[in-house]
Design brief:
This protein is an alpha/beta fold. It contains 11 helices and 15 strands. The strands form 3 sheets. Strands 3, 4, 5, 6, 7, 14 and 15 form a 7-stranded mixed β-sheet that branches. Strands 10-9-8-11-12-13 form a 6-stranded parallel β-sheet, with helices on both faces. The protein has a two-stranded antiparallel sheet with strand order 1-2. Helix 8 links the parallel strand 11 (230-233) and strand 12 (254-256). Residues 88-100 have low confidence and may be disordered.
Length: 331
C-alpha cells in the first residue's frame, strides 16, 4: 500500500484527499518508481477545478505530471526497453550524463507521468523515464520537464539562436527562468523583464534585467540599440502583449505561452496546450532539458517544499502571491 493524492470531486484544493492503494505489478515495458520529489504545476489544480470540464466519469482526478525518484521494480522486458535518450558531451565521452539503455532497479530517474505523480510510488512506461544526472538535485529534477517543455517550445518557436537578441517577459517565473537559460545556452543575448527584486537573480542566469512599466521600450532600446530579434511572453496580460508587440520584432518571432486569443487575433505565435506549435507531452524536449541540466547549463530554483500529504495546502499557496521558485511535494 502507498499514499496517493486524488481529487474526489471538482472544485478547489479542499477536494484533494490522500488515499492508500496498491499498484499493480509492472507489465511488459513498465517500471515502478519510488518518488523522491514531485513537481507542482498550475495545470495540476486546473485539471480538477472544472476549467477543462466536470464530467463525473473523469473522477477521481489524479494530479501530478512529473517527478524524480528511484526505480524499484521493472516489468518483463523493461530492461530491454530503452529510456529516453539524452545525448550529451558527458555521455559521449563516458564521463557522466545519461546513457541510452534499458531501465534497471536502482536507477535514479526523472519521470514524466502525465497524471498521477502525486504518489509515493508510480507505475509508468520505461519510455517515460530518463536517467537523472548525479549532479542534479532531486527537487530540481522533479520540476524540470513541464515548465521546461513549455520553455523549449517557446524558445524554439521564436527561432532563438547564436547572436540573437531576445526579450523574455516574466523572466523570473517558472517558465521564464528556464527560457532565459535555454536562450543563453544557445548563444543569444537575453534581456529579462521582471521586477527589480529579481534582477540579481536574472544576472546569475546570464540575462540583462530590465524593470517593467512606463518607458520599457526605451530602456530596452538603450540596451539593444539595433533592435530585438525575438520576444517571448510568459505572462499573458494584455498590457504585456502590447509591450511585446511594441518592440518591433517580426510577428513570427513573437511567442506567447499564455495569450492564445491575442496571438490568434494579432497574428503572432502561441505555444502550449492545444496549439499547432506544441505537443503537450513534448517527449522530444525532455532529453534536451536533462542534457543541459546535467552539464550545469540549466537549473530550476525550488522555492518551497511540502509533504505529499499537504498537497492541498501547496495548491492554495500556489494560487496566492508567493516568493519566486517552484513548489515540490516530498513523499
Amino acid at each position: 500500500m502507498g499514499k496517493t493524492v486524488v481529487a474526489s470531486a471538482f472544485g478547489g484544493p479542499e477536494v484533494l484527499e490522500v488515499i492508500e492503494e496498491d499498484l499493480p505489478a509492472p507489465g511488459p515495458g513498465q517500471v515502478v518508481v519510488a518518488m523522491r520529489a514531485i513537481g507542482v504545476n498550475p495545470v495540476d489544480y486546473r485539471l480538477y477545478s472544472g476549467e477543462f470540464g466536470a464530467d463525473p466519469a473523469l473522477l477521481p482526478v489524479r494530479p501530478g505530471m512529473e517527478g524524480s525518484g528511484v526505480v524499484v521494480e521493472v516489468g518483463p522486458d523493461s530492461e530491454e526497453v530503452e529510456s529516453e535518450e539524452v545525448e550529451s558531451e558527458e555521455a559521449d565521452s563516458g564521463e557522466g550524463g545519461s546513457e541510452h539503455r534499458g531501465v534497471r532497479v536502482g536507477d535514479e530517474v526523472i519521470v514524466y507521468t502525465g497524471t498521477g505523480a502525486y504518489a509515493e510510488r508510480v507505475l509508468v512506461s520505461a519510455q517515460d523515464v530518463l536517467l537523472k544526472p548525479e549532479s542534479v538535485p532531486w527537487d530540481s529534477a522533479a520540476c524540470l520537464l513541464t515548465a521546461g517543455g513549455t520553455a523549449v517550445d517557446a524558445v524554439t518557436a521564436a527561432g532563438v539562436g547564436d547572436g540573437d537578441v531576445v526579450v523574455i517577459f516574466g523572466a523570473a517565473g517558472g517558465v521564464g527562468e528556464v527560457a532565459v537559460q535555454l536562450a543563453a545556452a544557445w548563444g543569444a543575448r537575453v534581456i529579462g523583464v521582471a521586477r527589480e527584486k529579481h534582477h540579481d537573480f536574472l544576472r546569475t542566469l546570464g540575462a540583462v534585467p530590465v524593470a517593467p512599466g512606463e518607458g520599457l521600450s526605451e530602456r530596452i532600446r538603450r540596451i539593444a540599440p539595433r533592435g530585438v530579434d525575438a520576444v517571448i511572453d510568459t505572462i499573458g496580460a494584455d498590457e504585456v502583449v502590447d509591450d511585446c508587440l511594441a518592440l518591433g520584432a517580426d510577428l513570427e518571432r513573437v511567442v506567447t505561452v499564455v495569450a492564445f486569443e491575442r496571438a490568434e487575433r494579432d497574428g503572432f505565435v502561441a505555444v502550449g496546450v492545444g496549439t499547432k506549435a506544441s505537443d503537450w507531452s513534448r517527449p522530444e524536449t525532455r532529453p534536451i532539458l536533462v542534457d543541459l541540466a546535467g552539464r550545469g547549463l540549466l537549473d530550476v530554483f525550488v522555492g518551497r517544499r511540502f509533504p505529499l500529504t499537504e498537497a492541498a495546502e501547496a495548491h492554495r499557496a500556489l494560487q496566492q502571491p508567493h516568493p519566486r521558485g517552484k513548489f515540490v511535494l516530498v513523499p
